[in-house]
Structures are given as C-alpha cells and as structure tokens.
C-alpha cells in the first residue's frame, strides 16, 4: 500500500456501498475463484454459477459517466485559483492543469499517460499538412498505437514553457511528461554534474494510476466545493461522483456532439467495436423524438 494512498484525504476505502461496476467485478472475481475450486476437486459445483448478473445498458447514449463542458471548465478554474506563492506550488499547479487537459483533450487512459515520454509525441506530415500524434506503447490490444493529439498541443506548449522547456517536445527531453513532484529524493538518472532539486522533481514521473487518480479527484473536489458555494449543487454533485476515466468518456461525448463522425471517434479512442463508441451518442434518441413529434396523431375529431 503506497504512502500517498494511505495519507491522502481522497482515499476512502470501503466507505459507503460499492458501485454497480465494483459489484459486477467482485462477482466475476469470486466466480473465477470458485471455478478453480471446482476444477481442483475441492468443490462439486460453483455456487456462483447461477447467480444472475444485472444487465448493463449498452445502447445509444447509455454511457452517462461524462462531464459537461461547464463542469470541466470549473475544474480548470479551480486549479487556476489555487494560491501559488512558492515554486513548488507553481509547479504543482501547472502539472495538475496539464494532466487534466491531457486526459480530457486526448481521451487517453490513466495507465497510458503514466508510460508517456516526450519522445512519444510525434509530428507527422499528411496530405493536408503536419499533424501531431502521441504513441501509446503496448496499448490495450498489445501493439503500439498512434492517437491524434493536435487538440492538446496548446496546453502542452503552455506547460513546457512554465517549467522552462521549449514549447515543442523533443526525444532528448529528460523531464517527465507528468512529474511526480514528490518529497523524498530518489537516485538520479543523470551522469556528470549533480542536478538541482528542481530538476530532480521534474525528472521523476508518476508511477501509478492511483497517483493520477488523487490529482484529478483533488481538482474535482476543489471545483465541487466552489460550485456548491455558488449554488450550483447539481454540477457539484456530478463532480463529486466523477472519476479519472470520466474525462475519457467526456472526450468522446463532446467530439460526437461537435459533429465528428462516430467512426473517427472510434479510431481516436481505439475501440474495436463501434457499438462501444455509439454508447456516447447521447443526443441520438432526443433527435429522433423531436423528428417524430407532431408528425402523426390519433383520435381526430370527425
């Protein structure tokens, strides 16, 4: 158990009921365990084999775990409102904004963000001119994958300038894409002159998805607190429910709302099944309802 997890106020183990997703996952794990006990002869039957599982909605617009743009803007505003009187506070503020922007504007998974290096950002030249991609190494399918990332390049350049780097990433950059900025010193990778404490902080990268979760949840909680004080209780409640992966869902949702073809969003999110992507088409049923309204009626007076 990591020290950050034990000491963070955002880590609340087993407080309140498990989510539906957690209950399904727990049932799967227990079922696998009992299957093994049956195979080795310790039990005759698996008592969990006949336990009915709740059906999960998978149709158009069934994915509801996303944030509206106003709620995401509130997260960025909460980060920008943080006091930053020391260099350490300024670095944390810049890092946290960059992390939220990277997750939302690319739709990357937290596990993919952890593994990034600056060399993974590549500028390619196509028929319509140059465009930026980020390479996901050994992605969910096992192979390297390229994800378009032009949308995040402005935030990338902003972050790099704030930490004293040129705006364009280079394969020779040693600084972490998402620096840990933690306390304790670790052995440096540098050879030659001893690096400064600031360099060491920027060179160490976050090592776990839990570390990313804590940063994002902290920003969500700060935004929710401010929204509550403004009377926007529904927005605040939404942010208190959200997790890191909601930013990936939000990325897909708002691309589709902007009119990006579902096949393009499928490729950006690297979904094998296009029906997975169609779960983000939240307006589809509403559009049908408006198209049908008033076009037919019954009980006409004679």
Give the topology, please.
Elements: H1 3-7, H2 20-39, H3 69-80, H4 87-106, H5 110-114, E1 121-126, E2 129-136, E3 145-148, H6 153-162, H7 197-203, H8 209-229, H9 233-241, H10 246-257, H11 262-269, H12 274-278, H13 284-292
Antiparallel strand pairs: 1-2, 2-3
Helix pairs in contact: 3-8, 4-6, 4-10, 8-9
Describe the structure.
By secondary structure, this protein is mainly alpha-helical. It has 2 domains: 20-56, no CATH class; 69-185 and 194-278, Orthogonal Bundle (hpI Integrase, Chain A). Helices cover 47% and strands 6% of the residues. It contains 13 helices and 3 strands. Strands 1-2-3 form a 3-stranded antiparallel β-sheet. Helix 3 crosses helix 8 (209-229) and helix 4 runs antiparallel to helix 6. The protein is globular, with a radius of gyration of 23 Å.
């Amino acid at each position: 158990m990591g020290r950050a997890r034990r000491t963070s106020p955002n880590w609340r183990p087993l407080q309140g009921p498990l989510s539906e997703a957690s209950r399904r996952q727990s049932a799967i794990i227990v079922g696998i365990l009992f299957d093994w006990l049956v195979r080795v002869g310790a039990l005759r039957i698996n008592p969990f084999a006949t336990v009915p599982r709740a059906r999960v909605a998978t149709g158009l617009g069934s994915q509801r775990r996303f944030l509206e743009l106003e709620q995401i803007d509130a997260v960025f505003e909460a980060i920008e409102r943080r006091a930053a009187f020391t260099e350490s506070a300024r670095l944390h503020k810049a890092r946290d904004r960059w992390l939220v922007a990277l997750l939302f504007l690319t739709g990357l998974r937290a596990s993919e963000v952890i593994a990034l290096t600056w060399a993974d950002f590549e500028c390619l030249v196509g028929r319509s001119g140059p465009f930026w991609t980020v390479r996901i190494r050994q992605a969910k399918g096992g192979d390297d994958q390229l994800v378009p990332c032009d949308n995040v390049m402005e935030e990338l350049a902003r972050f790099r300038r704030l930490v004293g780097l040129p705006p364009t990433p280079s394969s020779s950059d040693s600084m972490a894409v998402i620096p840990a900025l933690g306390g304790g010193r670790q052995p440096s990778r540098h050879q030659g002159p001893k690096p400064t404490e600031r360099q060491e902080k920027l060179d160490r990268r976050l090592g776990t998805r839990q570390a990313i979760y804590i940063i994002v949840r902290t920003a969500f909680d700060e935004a929710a607190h401010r929204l509550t004080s403004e009377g926007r209780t529904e927005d605040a409640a939404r942010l208190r429910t959200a997790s890191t992966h909601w930013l990936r869902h939000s990325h897909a949702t708002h691309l589709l709302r902007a009119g990006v073809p579902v096949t393009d969003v499928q490729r950006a999110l690297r979904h094998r099944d296009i029906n997975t992507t169609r779960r983000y088409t939240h307006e589809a049923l509403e559009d049908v309802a408006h198209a049908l309204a008033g076009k037919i009626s019954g009980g006409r007076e004679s």
